Structure formats: C-alpha cells, structure tokens
Amino acid sequence: MTGSRSWTDDEVKQSTLDHVHTQALWFPRIQEAAKQYATTLAAGDASAWHERRLAALLDHAVASVPAYRALGQEVRVAASPAQALACFPVVDREILVEQLVAHCSEPLDPTSANIAYTSGTSTGSPLKFVVNHEHLIETYGAAYARREQLGIELHSRTLRPCQEILQSWYEYTEPAHGFAHVAAFGLRNLSPDDRCELARRSARFAPQTLAALPSQLLEFAGLLEESGVRLPQVRLIQTYGEFLDPRVRRRLEGYFSAAVVDAYGLREVSTVAAQCTAGSHHVEVPRVRVEVVGPDDSPQPPGTSGEIVVTELVNRAMPFIRYRTGDVGSVTTQECPCGLDWPMLLIADARKDSGTLRLANGHMVALVNVVAVLRRFAVERFQVVQRTPRSSELRVWLMPDADAGELARIQRDLKQELGSPADTGIELVHTRDFLVGPGGKHRELVNES
Ligand SMILES: [Zn+2]
After folding, report:
1. CA of 8 to the centre of ligand 1 (A)
2. Which domain holds residue 270?
3. Domain for residue 3, yes or no?
4. Average pLDDT of span 400-417
C-alpha cells in the first residue's frame, strides 16, 4: 500500500483477502520455515547458519545485482563473510528510490517475487521494492514460531484495533498466524454512538491477543474507557511500528492486565528484532544481520550507540545490504535471562533525524529538546504541530494518574527551557486529537506551515 492516497474499505478487504489466500497456498512451506526457526531458537546458536546465509547472499549480490558487480573481486578475496560485508557501501532509501533497477537481481523472475511499498515518512516518499516469495515465507514462518513460543494457541482471537485504513469492522482468518480469527476496525468519521458500539463489539469478540501500533492501542484504551467497557480475556499485546516508550508499555500492561511484546522492524526487511518474554529485543539472527555505525559509517563496538544498519539474508530479488534504518540504538551481547544468546538490540527513543521546530523568535529548536521536557511528566502521547512559520501547537494527552497541576508544570518547564510562550509561539493544548501519518503511524512533529 503506498499510503499516498486513501484506500476504500473494499480495496483494504480485497488486499487482506489476497494475503490470506497466499498464506493458505504457501502454508506447508510456512510451517516448514516455522519448524526450522523453532529448532534454531531452541538450540540457541544460529551463527553458523547465519554466516552461511550471509556468504551466499553476498556472492549472489556480486554475481547478479548490477549495483554490486564491481565489488566482485574484493568480495571473493575477503577472509570471512563479515569482511566481505564490509566491502559493501551503506545504502539509504533515497539511493534505492533513484537506482531501483540496479539494486534488483538480474534476471528477475516475476513469478517468484512481489512488488511492495513502504508507507512513506514525513520526510521521504514511499519506497517501491521487490521481495521474493522465500523472504515472505520465512518471515511468516518466524512469526508463527514466535507465536508458539509465546504460548498463543491455534485459532486464537486477535483484535487489530483503530486501524487507520479501515472504516468498518472486518473479520477474517489468518493461516500464517496460527489460523487466528482476526478482527480489525478503524475509527474514521465515527459518531460517539458508533464509537461506543465498536467498544462493545470488541468486548463481544473477546480477543486474547491485541496487535497494533502503540499509538493505536492507546487510542483503543481511550475508546474503551469512554465507553466503560473492559476486555478481561486479553493475555498478550503485540506492538510494532513505533518506538514503545517504557511508560506507554506500563500503561498498556496496567490497563489491559496483559504482557506486552514488541517487535522492531522495517517494511522493507520485516522484523529485525523481536522481544522475548524477558523483554529484550533479540536480533533475528537466522534472517537478519545488524550493524551499528557511527557518523562516518564506521562500525561501532557492542554497547556503543549509533545508527542501526541492517542486512536481510533471504530476499534475493532485491537484496537489502547494509541498509540505513534512520533509527538509533546499540547492540549488546550480554546474557539475557530468557537464555537465548542472540544479540540484543537496545533501541533509543530517537531517530537520526527527528526534525526541528521554528519558534516565534526565529530560533530553531530540535524536537528532542521538547521531548526531553515532556519525559519528566506523566504524558501518554504528544504531538507538535507547526501551524505557521512562527507558531505551533503542542498537543499532549496525560496519563490517567496525572493530577490537575501537571499541565501547569509542563508549561513552567517549557518556559524555563525554551522561553516564554510569546518567544516560542508554542501553545500547549490538552487533547487526544492527534494527526496520523502514512500507514497510521503516530507522528511527533507535523509541519503544516
Ligand atoms: Zn531474551
């Protein structure tokens, strides 16, 4: 889905049906992939498998991908797959948008690959990319194995609440997710009565699992609260797609009385790191290699923070090699209480480029400075909307346990750190009304000026 236009409900449903149909056709292969993944997960050590796959991917890239052909000699004489990988340039989305064909395998077999799109960001246009079926089957298989590991049974009920693209309630069965009975709904243009009915319908559906962006789950908690409805059967909450703030995690765990497991990934490569029961984001070693690079793209040692760069090991149609994520984090090889020895990714609450805000006095301030102030307070969600070149609105929604003086305290600290409202042009507003970005993602900074 390109995210550049609104889809009709029928189009969304048709697209979902296509996915479900494909999952059903591929189901024997998905189960094979899930078994192999589960075996590796149980054994812990996947490094030999990982190294073999990395070597094969890089050989394929220099043999069949035009953008990498010139690296052939260097790669062939490299002493190890890691050294061979270091010969490849770090690439970003813009390079792939400009040189899509040069980064695709030659020849490209249209019967074993699909075209897909990222949802686009506030700064970049959607990226068109190509994935082979093997990649899709493996990502489904890995997700299937993780569900089993988390104790989610076959035929469980999963609710995907507050999906931006849907207008109505929609139910289907997903073979690749343990034949889960899935219900999804959106909140576009709904009256208070309609919202209340959706809350009651969610309760009748009685989901055991919730799966959505953290911002969508907060919105859902708000919908249930305003309707006085509880969901007592929820056992697990799966989040993805946005940074999961530890306070938001506690809010969701507290409200739903269920465990939260998060997955970090990108549409282009699927899941990069998934949380275990101990709360660590383990890199998906069988499918992904993660590097952390400094400002000059040099690899950083474990524990040092930098930009997360990923290499996906399965997709041959358009290999993603040393691909910039724009996210900041570090890798650690410390022991995890869960026992799995796959490296852990510590994802920071920061993008490499999170944007700047223009103040009334003409100064520019980085969004991270505004975030630093808000982190001191019981803020559930926030958004800065730059209305005009000199004025902006800081929308915040407080946690349920915040007291009546919290907004005044936020105002006081904003004044101390950034200047008086007359200097900054920032108007603080308490509201739950947030503008969403492409793919329904919450955006911390929206520029309307
Ligand atoms: Zn763990």
Report:
1. 41
2. 9-349
3. no
4. 94
Distance CA 449, CA 397 (A): 23
Question: Within this chain, do residues 413 and 345 fall inside the same structural domain, yes or no?
Answer: no
Distance of CA 81 from the midpoint of ligand 1 (Å): 26
User: How far, in Å, CA of 388 to CA of 320, rounded?
Assistant: 39
Ligand 1 centroid distance, CA of 338 (Å): 4
Q: How far is the CA of 280 from the centre of ligand 1 (A)?
A: 5
Ligand 1 centre distance from Cα of residue 146 (Å)? 12
Q: Which of the four pLDDT bands, split at 50, 70 and 90, describes residue 121?
A: low
* CB distance 320 to 89 below 8 Å: no
Q: Rounded CA gap, 159 and 234, in Å?
A: 10
Has this prediction a pTM greater than 0.85? yes
Separation of CA 347 and ligand 1 centre (Å): 15
Going from the Cα of 242 to the center of ligand 1, the distance in angstroms, rounded, reads 20
Q: Are 378 and 398 in contact (CB under 8 A)?
A: yes
Instruction: Please report whether residue 234 resides in a domain.
Output: yes
Between the CA of 346 and the centroid of ligand 1 the distance, in Å, is: 12
Q: What is the DSSP string of 384-400?
A: EEEEETTEEEEEEEE-T
Claim to verify: residue 327 and residue 344 sit in the same structural domain: yes
Report d(CA 72, CA 311) in Å as an integer: 18
Q: Looking at residue 292, which CATH number applies to its domain?
A: 3.40.50.12780
